UniProtKB/TrEMBL annotation:
Residues covered by the Rtt106 pleckstrin homology domain: 78-239
Stated name of the protein: Rtt106 pleckstrin homology domain-containing protein
Protein species of origin: Candida tenuis (strain ATCC 10573 / BCRC 21748 / CBS 615 / JCM 9827 / NBRC 10315 / NRRL Y-1498 / VKM Y-70)
Gene3D superfamilies: 2.30.29.120, Pleckstrin-homology domain (PH domain)/Phosphotyrosine-binding domain (PTB) (2.30.29.30)
Superkingdom assignment: Eukaryota
Pfam families reported for this sequence: PH_18
Family matches, as InterPro entries: PH-like_dom_sf, Rtt106_PH
């Protein structure tokens, strides 16, 4: 057998090809040995390739499953390096009733688009996740809680609420918003622990000019949250009373009702009062239009659930 009959030699790198030709010229009996070696290695490689290659009819696995236009199911843990911002161990009232982590994060499968997830703190896996947040979140507000805004030790606690667009709701029979209770004093401790703010930040704050408002450090934290949310496509509107006399002024502060003026003038931008439906007590909220949202009215038992654009309300009646 001559070199010319070993077609595979031509596919070798030039240096190796020259060495093979030299070896054969020295002893032509090497031809059959080299050819047998080539055949063996080729078959062995193909066998291994078949073993590790996925079956032709198998689907590539993905950690994301689309549930609606803006809602997804994530089937894996969220890694620390994928996290943009986290509020750990906060109490959710809707749609879940337990302590969970609220997470803004990324996933390689979703590109550079931020995701909002409610994450189980035990498994680090999301139970609810939303994408295209500028479209998925219809309204995002931070509200005072009736009965707490008048108590010094509790006025730095608020309700963080996200109402979803119809396209972000997988099941049209389950339209409850995301409602969680946020303790700004605990958020401050988390931000200090994670190095996002210095431990001395509170002592560096100016004295409040409106004593009925939240702590200056907590107002700075809300501004930080607002920027984080904005970068991810969510416009957070804060209605907690300010420590600054020039904004978010309390126009009324009672256990049964809270009224806030954004610009500290005579315009009421948020009204939250006790309300009843039959024998059930609840709360009624009205928010004025702003640069991001139209006017809304909401109602719910213990927490605001139902939400209507004020333009869709035909009439009001009082008795």
């Amino acid at each position: 057998m001559s070199v010319t009959k070993l077609g595979w030699v031509d596919s070798l790198p030039q240096e190796l090809k020259s060495n093979i030709i030299t070896l054969i010229k020295q002893d032509t009996s090497n031809v059959s040995v080299l050819d047998s070696l080539y055949t063996y290695l080729t078959e062995e490689f193909e066998n291994k390739k078949r073993k590790i290659s996925p079956k032709a009819d198998s689907e590539p696995t993905s950690s994301i499953k689309m549930l609606s236009d803006y809602s997804i199911q994530v089937n894996r843990k969220i890694l620390e390096e994928e996290t943009i911002f986290e509020l750990p161990q906060i109490s959710f009232q809707s749609p879940l009733r337990k302590k969970m982590n609220l997470l803004l994060h990324l996933l390689p499968e979703n590109g550079a688009n931020p995701i909002l997830s409610i994450v189980n703190p035990t498994t680090s896996e999301p139970e609810l996740s939303y994408i295209q947040l500028d479209k998925a979140i219809k309204l995002c507000v931070l509200l005072p809680i009736l009965g707490m805004s008048t108590v010094e030790s509790k006025k730095n606690i608020g309700s963080l609420c996200f109402w979803l667009s119809d396209e972000a709701i997988p099941d049209p029979t389950k339209t409850d918003p995301i409602v969680c209770q946020i303790n700004l004093d605990l958020v401050k401790k988390h931000l200090v622990k994670t190095g996002k703010i210095p431990a001395t930040a509170e002592s560096q704050m100016l004295e409040p000019t409106q004593l009925e408002g939240i702590k200056p450090i907590n107002e700075a934290i809300i501004q930080f949250l607002t920027r984080q949310f904005k970068l991810c496509g969510i416009n957070l509107i804060n209605y907690l009373p300010s420590c600054d006399i020039n904004r978010n002024k309390l126009r009324m502060s009672k256990d049964t009702g809270v009224v806030i003026s954004h610009r500290a003038n005579n315009v009421n931008d948020m009204l939250l009062i006790e309300a009843y439906k039959g024998s059930k007590d609840g709360s009624l909220i009205m928010v004025n239009q702003n640069e991001f949202n139209p006017s809304y009215i909401g109602f719910g038992f213990k927490k605001p659930i139902m939400l209507f654009s004020l333009n869709d309300v035909v009439s009001f009646s009082f008795s």
